[in-house]
Every structure is written in structure tokens, then in C-alpha cells.
Design the sequence.
């Protein structure tokens, strides 16, 4: 109904232009409003609770009823030994993960791209995606069944071959390897999707021209395939760097255990422990807030560097 | 695998769901604030029908057609208590494994919190009380809970008091017997040894089990079953530590490292581990799953367990007998404590069970007390835990004997009886001796003799918890962190190479002291002084 009015008004001047703009695009804005509402309620709304970090939060008084304590909780957290250990572990696990898990889908995508047999390509792609849909909980179960020192299948095979069992889960260094490769197994296949999508846009003529010039397969990968997915690689790298300080809860919590706590205890499991298990909400909020701030610094920093170095960025 | 996975599913659910719920819970919590307990207290009496919400543990084991919130017992409660008092009783399920985390979330929301909640962990209770979240029920019990008062007595009620105020109603524990050990008699016979009677003899026996491999298991042979669970490591630790005061000592598990002799226990564990005498992956086995698998497959020579735990119908022992027909299990009391005159020191439970609490925001505190009072009156506790006389059980010399031939339907009535009868932990029939008899009567006929022996052993040379008349603040502050640290101390000390034991132990203990151990030690010692 308002629309019909708008048509009349759209006859002349800036005002009219704006009206016709709204008239033309209002549906897009209406569509956008839903996600906006989602973000307001579920992303920005809870930020109200961030003030818990500056209050001596009392469960029964609620947020408003609790007393302000300034930065006292921050001091307490920064004096905790566990905080530094979990911070170090978060960086360590994320960094190693980046080293191991980040190149894996790129290599895999290039390999898939090079396969000419469409049927084989489709089958292997599907097989590679499947682990992504398995929850960490189930992967945890599989890992325990496979890698247990005495009950694990892998060690049973090793022992059958006359070798000593390896403590995949209980020695912290072996555990790191288990942790990293489980990650690759779970995510590498899924990660190829974006790269493969980027590769579909590559002009086939480039390859034909290279063929004419007598370029080897490796040369083609190096000079055509890789440069064409460079922007995708950079975008994903920036996103990953931004997540450096945040770490999923499931993976370290489920794959980790008491014997390797020295490495497997990360910020998210730390927050869970002090916040939900010990009920020290203030301290948990402090750690969460700290994590968010450092994450922001990382993402802005890596974006800045990327723009300087390569001219590409995400903002 | 299924077990491990299931545990994981719960973990996952906690991680994702609770994190979300918490945010919402906190938000809604801020509006609520204080609510008077007086107003509407007598609403039920005025003829207006009110709703009483009661927490109940959900173990995900409801037999069809029942659900955790609608089953024979909830109907029984509604009919016998609710309808007669004009009250709708509504049960609020809480996953057993996320007891505290879920409770923390519930307590933060003024509207969802049940009128009756409970927790085993005393430090959680203290924290709620100190933050002013609980109703003082002292007067209410006097007015509305004569049966309750009689049932608990002043001694048990004391566990729920804080600075003279009754902030919790402790459940009563039927039996204080806690741990016991079992050995494979057939293995002993094969290696030609007598049942060990001291810790040293036990060690020799375990070594013989390892070297002679009486069952011919090869790499699967586990002389001593171990898990990262209290029943396994507490028994070992208690056989080295010196109790603080005669037959009493600090009550919390994470206070074990503050005892003289703790280091020796870790040294012993280290020796057992490095000589390959205990389960190699015990550090992964917090739920005793691998332990039971190994035990039932006949791979374990000796282990400690919660008393009676392996003796339930179709439990560990029955499965072992099925898998290894010529196996024979004997109850054993081998551990002797060099720091306590060579006695068979072991832990016992305190006389109290759960801390049952009424949140301050509850408007139904009177009804809540009435409910608990009703539960402890007449035969209700017995009915709730065991079922109907003549159908579920027969009374023989005052002891309810379960009718094993009762139809499954009838048995299913009380499938969660232990969780519904919150005022009792175990079957409270009369005194300790009666309770033990009743407990034993609940086991399969074949296992009853071994159960009797197990209980007798579990009652030998026990050490109970010291009760202070004020809360130890360091417990509520550092308890969870220290509990966690204790596990690390145990695992790291056990798994260190023998020549590195000293260094690893010192490092972990230093950490333990730093993250709250020192503060806890000082406060405990001070409280001990005040008590004298």
C-alpha cells in the first residue's frame, strides 16, 4: 500500500530517487533484516553479559545486582599459571594445525583437479568429504579404539609384527601427532571444496597454451593452477590466522586426556572448567573477552600484512 | 566403542548446548533477583492448586512406556502426596553426568530453577549458600517436617548447616562401606601362592602374576586392574597416608596430597606402572570402561572397586563367569598401611548423602519441605526405592527381599527408585546392620556370600571424613581445580620413568600447592586447631 504512494512521489528530485530505490530494492532489505535480527539477538545481545568480566558475579543477584570490581578479575586471571599454559597450548595447537592442516586441502584440491577420470574423481571427492560430517565425539571414539596402547587396533598390529606398542594417546609428543593428523583426516576433504570452486573458473585456454609451449605438468600447476587460487588461499589464511587464539572445544576436549593435559588443555577447555564446572563465571568471562580481543588484533593484523604484501585482503 | 561414544555424546551436548543455554540463562537471571519465600507459601492450603518442581537425575535408562518425568514413581508421588495436598508435582530431569554444570545453569535462572535441587559436591553447596542463593529451612523443618527431623536426627542435619543456618537437608546414607578388593583365586592357585595379606605380599603376588602368566594371556595379561577412578586410586593412596586424626581425616579427595605418606603411594604406583603390573592405559579410563572390559574377559588378576559393584546381576562377575567358566573370584584385604601401624586403612563414606537444597527464589519452600517430610513418613521411602510389598518384594525378618521372579513390568516400576528416593542414599531400612542385610538381599543369590565378605572387608579399619563446623572456603574456591590437578599428579607420577619420578613428582606437587594447595592446607590446619 505504501508502495503505490511511493510511485507518485518518485516523479521528481533526490527524494523521488530515493523512493524509487527503496521501491526497487525493499525486498532485498527485507531479506537482509532476518540475518540482521539473528546477529543482533544471538551475537550482539549476549555482549551485554561481557560486563560480568568486571563484576563479582553472583549467580543469584544477576548481572545488575552484582558488584563492580574493576580489573580485579583480570589481575587474578593473569596471575594464574594455567592461563599461560592454556594460552600457549592454544597457540601451539593452532599454529601446528595451520602448518599441517592448511596446505593439505590445497594439495588435495590440485590432485583432484588433475584427475581426468570424472567417475573416479567424483567417488574420491565424496569419500574425502565424509569425515567432515562425523562429529568429533564419534571420531574420539574411533581414535580411542584405534590408538589405545593395549586395546588399540594399530598397536595390536604393531605387536603382531613384533614391535613395541606406541603410546599414541598418553605420551604428549605422540599425542600431538595423533591430534594433528586426526584433524587433517577430518577436515582436508571438506577444505578442498572452496579451492575446487575457485579452480572451475580457470580459463582452460591457459592450459592449452601451456601445452603448446611444452610445459610439464608440474610447471602448469606452479604457473597456472596455484596463481589462480591465490586469492582463495590468502582469504582462508587470514580467516585462519584470525582464529589463532580461539579454538574449538570438542576436538581438544575429546581427543585430549589427563595424561597429555600439559598439551591438550586449551583456552576453551579452560573456560569450560572454571566457568561451568567450578562456577567462577567472572574468571571465565575474562578469559573469553581476552580471547575475543586478541582474535580481533590477529585478524586485523594479518589483513593489514596481507594487503601490504600481496595487495589482497578481506576488508 | 558404544560406551566411549556415548560418554562423548554427552560431553558434546554439554559443550554446545550448555554454552548456549548459559548465555540465555544469565540474561534471564538478571531480571529475577530476589523473591520472597513467604508470599504464597501457604498457597496450597488456601485451596489454590500449586506446582512443585523437583529435580531428578536422568540416566537415560527409562524402560518403555515410562519416561523420566512420567513413570510409576512420579504417578505414585502425585497420587499419594500431590493430590492429597493439592499440589502438582513436576519433575525436572538433569543428566546424571552433568549434575553440577546443569545445576549451575538452572540456578542462574530464577524462573526455571526447580524448588528442590541437590548436589553431592559440598563445595557447590557452600558456594550457593555463601552467595545467598538458598533458603534457610531450619524453621520450616520444625514447622512442617516432624518426620524429616526424626528420620535425619541432629547428627545428619548438621551436615547441611552453615553458621547456624540450615541451608541444606542432607540425605541419609544407608551404608558407609565404600571400597573393597578382589583377586582371581584360580590365578593364585596356579602360581601356587596364598592370598596376600600385606602390601608387600601383594606386590610379590602381582609380580608372580606377571612373570608366570597363569592364564596364558601374553600381552593382554594385567596383574592389577587400574583406572583413573577413585575406587582404584583412593584404595591405593589410603594404604599409605597417615590419617589426620585417628580414624578421621580430611574429607575431600583432592586433599589426599596434603597427607603424610602420599608420596610413598605415588612411588608405589610408579613402580607398579613401570614394571608393567597395572593397566597401561589407565590414564584414559576415567569411566572404568576398559577396566570392566578387561576384568570380564578374564585379563585382570587383582583390582579394587566400589563395594559390590561387580556383584550386581549381569554385572562384572557374572560376565566373567560366563566368559571364563573356571575363573574364581575372592574378596581380599591386602593393602596394609606402613604409616598407620600396618592397618588395612581404607576410606568410608560419611553418614550423609546428597545436599538437598531449596533455592531462595523458590516460592514453594513449604511444599518442598512437606514433600521431603512425606517421603520420610510411613513406608514411602521403601516403596519409592523398592516397590510394592508382595509384588516387588517380600518382607523377611523385616528385610525386604526382592522377588526375582516378578514380571519385568513390575520390576520396571522402580527402575530409578534410587534417584527418586532422594532422602536416602541406598536403602535405609533401619540401622547400618539392617541396611547391609537389605542391600545384600538385593543381589543375585550366587553372589550374596561374596557380597557379605566384601562389606565386612570394606568395614575394616575405615577412615571417615572430619566434619568442620564452618565451610572451608579454599574448598569452594580451589576444589575443582585441585581435583583436576590430583588426577594429573597421579598420572604423571605413575607414568614417569623411575629415575625421573622424584623430579616429576616434585614439579607436579609444586604446581598443586601453587594453584590452591597451600591456601587449602593452611585453612584446614587452622580449622583443625579451632576444633580442638
Sequence:
Amino acid at each position: 500500500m505504501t508502495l503505490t504512494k511511493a510511485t507518485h512521489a518518485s516523479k521528481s528530485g533526490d527524494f523521488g530517487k530515493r523512493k524509487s530505490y527503496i521501491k526497487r530494492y525493499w525486498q532485498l532489505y527485507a531479506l537482509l533484516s532476518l540475518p540482521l535480527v539473528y546477529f543482533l539477538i544471538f551475537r550482539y545481545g549476549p555482549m551485554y553479559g561481557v560486563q560480568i568480566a568486571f563484576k563479582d558475579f553472583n549467580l543469584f543477584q544477576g548481572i545488575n545486582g552484582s558488584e563492580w570490581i574493576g580489573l580485579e578479575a583480570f589481575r587474578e586471571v593473569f596471575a594464574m599459571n594455567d592461563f599461560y599454559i592454556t594460552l600457549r597450548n592454544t597457540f601451539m595447537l593452532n599454529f601446528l594445525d595451520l602448518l599441517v592442516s592448511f596446505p593439505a586441502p590445497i594439495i588435495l584440491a590440485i590432485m583432484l583437479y588433475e584427475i581426468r577420470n570424472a567417475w573416479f574423481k567424483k567417488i574420491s571427492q565424496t569419500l574425502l568429504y565424509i569425515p567432515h560430517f562425523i562429529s568429533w565425539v564419534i571420531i574420539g571414539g574411533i581414535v580411542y579404539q584405534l590408538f589405545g596402547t593395549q586395546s588399540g587396533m594399530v598397536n595390536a598390529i604393531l605387536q603382531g609384527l613384533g614391535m613395541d606398542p606406541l603410546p599414541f594417546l598418553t605420551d604428549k609428543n605422540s599425542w600431538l601427532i595423533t591430534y594433528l593428523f586426526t584433524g587433517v583426516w577430518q577436515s582436508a576433504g571438506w577444505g578442498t571444496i572452496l579451492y575446487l570452486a575457485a579452480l572451475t573458473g580457470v580459463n582452460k585456454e591457459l592450459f592449452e597454451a601451456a601445452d603448446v609451449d611444452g610445459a610439464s605438468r608440474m610447471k602448469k600447476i606452479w604457473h597456472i593452477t596455484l596463481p589462480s587460487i591465490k586469492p582463495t588461499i590468502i582469504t582462508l589464511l587470514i580467516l585462519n590466522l584470525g582464529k589463532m587464539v580461539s579454538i574449538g572445544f570438542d576436538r581438544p576436549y575429546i581427543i585430549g586426556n589427563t595424561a597429555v593435559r600439559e598439551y591438550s588443555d586449551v583456552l576453551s577447555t579452560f573456560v569450560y572448567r572454571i566457568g561451568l564446572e567450578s562456577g567462577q563465571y567472572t574468571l571465565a568471562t575474562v578469559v573469553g573477552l581476552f580471547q575475543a580481543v586478541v582474535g580481533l588484533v590477529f585478524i586485523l593484523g594479518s589483513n593489514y600484512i596481507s594487503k601490504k604484501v600481496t595487495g589482497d585482503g578481506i576488508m | 566403542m558404544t560406551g566411549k561414544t556415548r560418554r562423548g555424546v554427552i560431553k558434546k551436548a554439554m559443550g554446545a548446548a550448555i554454552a548456549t543455554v548459559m548465555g540465555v540463562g544469565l540474561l534471564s537471571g538478571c531480571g529475577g533477583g530476589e523473591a520472597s519465600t513467604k508470599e504464597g507459601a501457604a498457597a496450597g492450603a488456601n485451596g489454590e492448586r500449586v506446582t512443585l518442581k523437583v529435580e531428578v537425575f536422568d540416566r537415560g535408562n527409562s524402560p518403555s512406556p515410562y519416561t523420566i518425568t512420567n513413570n510409576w514413581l512420579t504417578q505414585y508421588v502425585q497420587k499419594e502426596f500431590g493430590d492429597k495436598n493439592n499440589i502438582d508435582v513436576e519433575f525436572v530431569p538433569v543428566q546424571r553426568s552433568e549434575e553440577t554444570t546443569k545445576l549451575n545453569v538452572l540456578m542462574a535462572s530464577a524462573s526455571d530453577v526447580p524448588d528442590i535441587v541437590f548436589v553431592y559436591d559440598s563445595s557447590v553447596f557452600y558456594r550457593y549458600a555463601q552467595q545467598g542463593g538458598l533458603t534457610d529451612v531450619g524453621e520450616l523443618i520444625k514447622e512442617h517436617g516432624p518426620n524429616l527431623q526424626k528420620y535425619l536426627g541432629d547428627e545428619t542435619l548438621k551436615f547441611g548447616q552453615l553458621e547456624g543456618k540450615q541451608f541444606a537437608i542432607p540425605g541419609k546414607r544407608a551404608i558407609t562401606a565404600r571400597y573393597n578388593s578382589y583377586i582371581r583365586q584360580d590365578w593364585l592357585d596356579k602360581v601356587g601362592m596364598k592370598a596376600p595379606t600385606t602390601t608387600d605380599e601383594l606386590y610379590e603376588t602381582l609380580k608372580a602374576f606377571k612373570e608366570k602368566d597363569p592364564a596364558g594371556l601374553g600381552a593382554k595379561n594385567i596383574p592389577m586392574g587400574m583406572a583413573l577412578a577413585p575406587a582404584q586410586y583412593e584404595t591405593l593412596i589410603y594404604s599409605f597416608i597417615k590419617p589426620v586424626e585417628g580414624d578421621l581425616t580430611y574429607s575431600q579427595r583432592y586433599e589426599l596430597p596434603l597427607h603424610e605418606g602420599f608420596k610413598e603411594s605415588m612411588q608405589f604406583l610408579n613402580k607398579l606402572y613401570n614394571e608393567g603390573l597395572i593397566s597401561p592405559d589407565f590414564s584414559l579410563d576415567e569411566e572404568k570402561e576398559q577396566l570392566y572390559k578387561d576384568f570380564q574377559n578374564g585379563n585382570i588378576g587383582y583390582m579394587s572397586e566400589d563395594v559390590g559393584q561387580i556383584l550386581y546381576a549381569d554385572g562384572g562377575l557374572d560376565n566373567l563367569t560366563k566368559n571364563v567358566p573356571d575363573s574364581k573370584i575372592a574378596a581380599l584385604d591386602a593393602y596394609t598401611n606402613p604409616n598407620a601401624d600396618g592397618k588395612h586403612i581404607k576410606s568410608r563414606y560419611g553418614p550423609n548423602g546428597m545436599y538437598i537444597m531449596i533455592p531462595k527464589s523458590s516460592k514453594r519452600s513449604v511444599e518442598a519441605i512437606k514433600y521431603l517430610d512425606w517421603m520420610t513418613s510411613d513406608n514411602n521411602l521403601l516403596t519409592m526405592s523398592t516397590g510394592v510389598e508382595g509384588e516387588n518384594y517380600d518382607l523377611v525378618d523385616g528385610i525386604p527381599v526382592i522377588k526375582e521372579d516378578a514380571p519385568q513390568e513390575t520390576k520396571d516400576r522402580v527402575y530409578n527408585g534410587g534417584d527418586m528416593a532422594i532422602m536416602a542414599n541406598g536403602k535405609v531400612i533401619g540401622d547400618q546392620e539392617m541396611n547391609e542385610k537389605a542391600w545384600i538381599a538385593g543381589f543375585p543369590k550366587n553372589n550374596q556370600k561374596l557380597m557379605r565378605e566384601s562389606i565386612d572387608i570394606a568395614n575394616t579399619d575405615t577412615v571417615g571424613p572430619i566434619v568442620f563446623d564452618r565451610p572451608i572456603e579454599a574448598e569452594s574456591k580451589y576444589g575443582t581445580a585441585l581435583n583436576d590437578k590430583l588426577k594429573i599428579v597421579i598420572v604423571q607420577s605413575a607414568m614417569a620413568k623411575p629415575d625421573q619420578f622424584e623430579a616429576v613428582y616434585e614439579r607436579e606437587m609444586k604446581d598443586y600447592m601453587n594453584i590452591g594447595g597451600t591456601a587449602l592446607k593452611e585453612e584446614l590446619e587452622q580449622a583443625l586447631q579451632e576444633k580442638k
Q: What stands out?
A: Chain B is about 45% helix and 15% strand. Chain B touches chain A through 62 residues (CB under 8 Å).
